[in-house]
Amino acid sequence: MESNMIFVPMVLAIVGLLFMFVKMSWVKKQAPGDERMQSISKSIKEGALAFLGAEYRLLLVFVVIAAIALGIISMLVDTTHWIIIVAFVLGAFFSALAGNVGMRIATEANARTAEAAKTSLPNALKVSFGGGTVMGLGVAGLAVLGLSLLFFIFVKMFVTGEASFYSEMTIALEALAGFSLGAESIALFARVGGGIYTKAADVGADLVGKVEAGIPEDDPRNPATIADNVGDNVGDVAGMGADLFGSYVATVLAAMVLGNYVIKDMSVNGPFTDSFNNMGPILLPLVIAGVGVLASIIGTFLVKISNNEAKEPQVQKALDTGNWIAIVLTLIASFGLIKYMLPETMSMKFFGEGYVEVSSMNVFWSACIGLAVGALISVVTAHYTSLGKKPVLDIVKNSSTGAATNIIAGLAVGMKSTFLSVILFAAAIYGSYTLAGFYGVALAASAMMATTAMQLAIDAFGPIADNAGGVAEMSELESHVRERTDILDSVGNTTAAVGKGFAIASAALTALALFAAYVTFTGIDGINIFKADVLAMLFVGGMIPVIFSALAMQSVGKAAMEMVKEVRRQFKEIPGIMEGTATPEYAKCVDISTKAALREMIVPGLITIITPIIIGLIFGAEPLGGYMAGVCVSGVMWAIFQNNAGGAWDNAKKSFEAGVEIDGKMEYKGSDAHKAAVTGDTVGDPFKDTSGPSMNILIKLTCLVGLVIAPILGGHSTEEGMAQLTTEEVVEVKNDEIKKVLVDLKVINEDMAKASVKTKTIPSGGGEPVITETVISGTKEEVLKKIDELKEEATSFHQTGDAAKKQ
Amino acid sequence: MESNMIFVPMVLAIVGLLFMFVKMSWVKKQAPGDERMQSISKSIKEGALAFLGAEYRLLLVFVVIAAIALGIISMLVDTTHWIIIVAFVLGAFFSALAGNVGMRIATEANARTAEAAKTSLPNALKVSFGGGTVMGLGVAGLAVLGLSLLFFIFVKMFVTGEASFYSEMTIALEALAGFSLGAESIALFARVGGGIYTKAADVGADLVGKVEAGIPEDDPRNPATIADNVGDNVGDVAGMGADLFGSYVATVLAAMVLGNYVIKDMSVNGPFTDSFNNMGPILLPLVIAGVGVLASIIGTFLVKISNNEAKEPQVQKALDTGNWIAIVLTLIASFGLIKYMLPETMSMKFFGEGYVEVSSMNVFWSACIGLAVGALISVVTAHYTSLGKKPVLDIVKNSSTGAATNIIAGLAVGMKSTFLSVILFAAAIYGSYTLAGFYGVALAASAMMATTAMQLAIDAFGPIADNAGGVAEMSELESHVRERTDILDSVGNTTAAVGKGFAIASAALTALALFAAYVTFTGIDGINIFKADVLAMLFVGGMIPVIFSALAMQSVGKAAMEMVKEVRRQFKEIPGIMEGTATPEYAKCVDISTKAALREMIVPGLITIITPIIIGLIFGAEPLGGYMAGVCVSGVMWAIFQNNAGGAWDNAKKSFEAGVEIDGKMEYKGSDAHKAAVTGDTVGDPFKDTSGPSMNILIKLTCLVGLVIAPILGGHSTEEGMAQLTTEEVVEVKNDEIKKVLVDLKVINEDMAKASVKTKTIPSGGGEPVITETVISGTKEEVLKKIDELKEEATSFHQTGDAAKKQ
């Protein structure tokens, strides 16, 4: 039966995009404020688009080079089709498009939010959250649309029934990996470049403006003010958006690859069939993603407040309500879909345990684990970085003895925060794998990512509110406007910290799912770190996040220094700037940040992309797996450490605004303790906004590059086209005993081969099955001979044993 | 033929110890200085011994608990004998004894060095280096003596020829692991406790003395001065000594375990024999260690200067000469020993490649790699932490814009320094493994550690010179005395940084060798991180060093605060203290540091020891392997990062003493930039002296605990005593074809079993061998049946194939 299930996510994605257009035009219809507000908003928008423009030019170069490289791969490797180039370019284009749409709406919504705040807080929330919704739906809608459209086309192209379903589907999914690689490449540029941009502008504006010239933040006389506001959009809107777009696509892709593997595992019992064109486990993650878009739309309707006098808790509650409704709806729908689309029990291969029967309910529980761990990691993140909690208070207390003790305390908080996060994360891996293998891990990640649209709407609303405050300040609006935008901004700060926890948790689970997909793609038996080359690469991988962080931190320093010099120059050379009679040259500062960001991200970007390729080509598939694991383990640790230390320092500094009690004495802004806290915050800035969040991209992109080059490394490639032959043969029943044989033959080169022959014998009357796996290596001739012998033995089984006994 | 080779290391160790006594009595015969100097020296000695005394009391509790735990293990597990308790206690005792001897001589040598410096720099060097030599030879001599003595006894006890050589030797080596565990436990107390002690005293003395009261460093009016000087001995002499004692013993032990594995591998071709009681590969590392002691003694004779006007370079050159002579002699001797004691070619099993013929020269090249990498990592460490080099100058430059930029620059230097160190380290693993398997890795570590006596003599000489300067200052000796001790101290600072590089490199290689020994002990097939539980534990392991560092840093902060309060109290309550008419209560400060250090090290110590036990018992052998790998990868990274960042900050601060040029302006002590650099140094202090060096112990102890509990986890344990049966059978020759079969049977529980049957077929006329490995899992009955079938098939080989063809 032809199934039309593939159209479901496509339609849901289109619904999401239509709703996005409705919301977009609604936001644009709102009053844009007076001329000054419009002019400031326009400057921010132009700066942001200038950054995007410059980024696109650099991207074009990158995309062309990468496309050529992919073309070469597709020529060298039978199982990689040139169409991967199209998928790659489309992935890059869709991600860039989503970022562009989000950035445009965010920079339009800021002045409109400020204007709405003149009369009503509920309206201001509606406008700013509306802007966030556009971003969220744009990202999720384009991701699901791109994936389902390409998957539809690739299945038509490649899954023709000429070869085995598994190998044809592998080719289709490998091409689809190009889409994910394209998306993640944009994320690299947006997240790392954006991170450098925003901190260079921020530090530059603060050092000269606040410290040297003594003018307040967001003061229109500061030439770097616009760049600073652009930075919020570039880093927190476009950067976060591209990061989650990448995670979203990669998670769904990895789950699809592992779904294909489930089908392969089940084919040991004969060809797999279901009423979804025999690809239920592959389609499931895509459909869940589509349903998540719909659930998110419903959730957005619930984000509203009615009281004009509302404070932070009410606003937070409105956001939480929307978020939880979206999550619960997704969970309910997932339950139905899992029951509907998956066989009641599946046979999955577990390393070292052989084939295990897994119920579809286990897959659902895996999804629940994903959602629970995502939520709990957010809670842990909030604990370590929130105002008034012990970790932040510890840093505050240690500020009284100077900057050094403040720094030590902040570092210790960041380091300690890894404990619970990693335990949760390890529990998620262990739990979801135990329930449903790596398919379970991928589904856990998919469930977590399903409500990305809602999550991103909440994330993007923060910077819009922050910018609205900036517009209000620069346009010298009445103070109650700023008070209202401050309420929204304050809630936005909390959601930003939680969002970072969500982003790293999702990136880590995504990386794991990709890692699992990589192992199945290469056809290796696992990644054994007791092999010295694998262990060596585990160490090298562990080092990469450390170096990447160091480079990112240094980049911020360098770029900020350039900004400082430019601002100083303008203060000196433009007469009347301090009196407000002359306009500073905002564009020059924007330009400096843009150029510095793009220039500085080239080296870390190249390290990320080229290192796995070099290691894969020189050492092979398994050491590259060790490298990927090293990057993930170390990357997760450094991400949590840097994000949370930075967040905690930031709030320790903020604590002084309301005054804090240290050893029985109240300390306020301007005290020595506050100065120490400012030093800590300055150290933490690149941690939390540049190097920390960059880790997400580093670990995902590393695994994705591995996945894309997997066909070159694994047994797929060969002369004679016989690289890897997997035959599922000989299902015999004799004396009620069932015997199944699976032969995996890998030709290493002209002379040598390696094969694995697995037989599973289920004794008559049930009972524990006996699994034997024979690994043979030697000359091709000898190995083929031995396989024949083993197959003979299997088909004539019990004869050997009986014959032996008679002797 | 009975070989007496085992007595060679024993005799060499005794020679080392005799020479130590000679040197010790020579040092003691030197003039101890005037009454005041003697009194100060006595206070330091008493403080140091007070710390040791308190440590021993805590240790006694620990040793009793651990001995009981080991007793329980030995009762539960057939292959673990209760004698492991004796080995454990002896290991703890020898390590403590070595530390005690070293600490006593160091605290006697300080005043004598100052006295000698009154007249002659060459003599001052001779005395201080003499003290170091006593420490070095005490550690190395006791280590080699303990290991060879116990090994001799255990071989007599267990290797009786009743069971297979491999399994009997495994029991002997498992008992020997107790000695290593005892030694490393002391190292935990000495290194972590000592690290907390020294920094608490240092920070406490500085904060109140230098900053609040404005009196110089080492001023006798400061109540914490003695504690500060005691700290140098506790941390840098006893801590470093115990650390290297532990590494030394563990490395040799791991190499012996892997030597046993080499013998097992070679037994596939029939029983292994050589003229060293058939245990050449096991004895080799022990003999090399013995020879290293002799080479170190010869090296110490070359450490001398003749010119009284010599400066740092000449002193450094004298140390370098002695060091290199010791290394070269060891290398030459190793070449001869390897050629003499190992078979010309060995058959070693490489994962995934089967059995490979390895020449004994490969083992020698592995040893060369170990020495080369040890030296190169020291060079890298020196580059990142030395005065006048780019990394330190970068930090200096960034001090001009305040503490925040100084901190960021220092963090970046530490992070970047991981790059070359890790690449070198990965190259060492890869190179030595490729040459000679994990035996090669262990021999690389052994070669690096062979000159531990010399290395430690150089390391311990620094703190003695530093203390001599303190004694000179406190006794108000003439300034030329201090100038001379300062020359020695300055050289000591450089050797300390390099020594830290050596310590972490050796700890890392040791951990790897232990890790390899662990895998062979448990009998698992490797550590596959594609299994979810293993991967989850890899993450958990990666988190432990981060948490450990955070706890250690916090401990320093807490202990320093207590010290600050006590010093403040004494200044306030003891009249005449500032005028020098009343003596401060030094002992109270010593007591505070002692108690705080011991109290604060309990939690990190427990985490280190208990976590691997819990993981091993709950999840099993392979996940514990993943945990160990996680701790090693992350631990090495954090050790290098923290050590080098701390060292670089320290020297960035010191740069200001001679004056530095920043942006064309000279900056000196007391400038704002210098203050920023002081902040950096304060952050770096716990990094480089507490948490950084603690990582060494953490990674070694983790692997060692794993090794000791391996028998509980692996296939050794079982009812029926049939846990792991390894039979090496059926060597048949038919039609010139040679066939060998190796059966490994593991009984999992009453019902289930797992077996591996390996056959190696060498075709007639040579050519590539065909190796097949069949892994069978299922009910015990079925597995045994299948093994019989496979054996039948092997003995009657070609019949099945021929028969099949006829059908």
From TrEMBL, chains A, B:
Cellular localization per UniProt: Cell membrane; Endomembrane system
GO cellular component: endomembrane system; plasma membrane
Cofactor requirements of the protein: Mg(2+)
Domain of life: Bacteria
Site residues, Determinant of potassium dependence: 496
The reaction(s) this protein catalyses: Na(+)(in) + diphosphate + H2O = Na(+)(out) + 2 phosphate + H(+)
Sequence intervals crossing the membrane: 6-27, 48-76, 82-103, 134-159, 171-190, 245-263, 283-303, 324-342, 362-386, 502-522, 534-553, 601-621
Membrane topology (UniProt): Multi-pass membrane protein
A single GO BP: sodium ion transport
Record entry for activity regulation: Requires K(+) for maximal activity.
MF (Gene Ontology): diphosphate hydrolysis-driven proton transmembrane transporter activity; inorganic diphosphate phosphatase activity; magnesium ion binding; potassium ion binding
Predominant place of localization: membrane
One Pfam family named in its UniProt record: H_PPase
Keyword annotations of the record: Cell membrane, Hydrolase, Ion transport, Magnesium, Membrane, Potassium, Sodium, Sodium transport, Translocase, Transmembrane, Transmembrane helix, Transport
Enzyme Commission number(s) from the entry: 7.2.3.1
Signal peptide limits: none
EC category name: translocase
Entry similarity comment: Belongs to the H(+)-translocating pyrophosphatase (TC 3.A.10) family. K(+)-stimulated subfamily.
Description of how the protein assembles with itself and partners: Homodimer.
Function: Sodium pump that utilizes the energy of pyrophosphate hydrolysis as the driving force for Na(+) movement across the membrane.
Protein name (database record): Putative K(+)-stimulated pyrophosphate-energized sodium pump
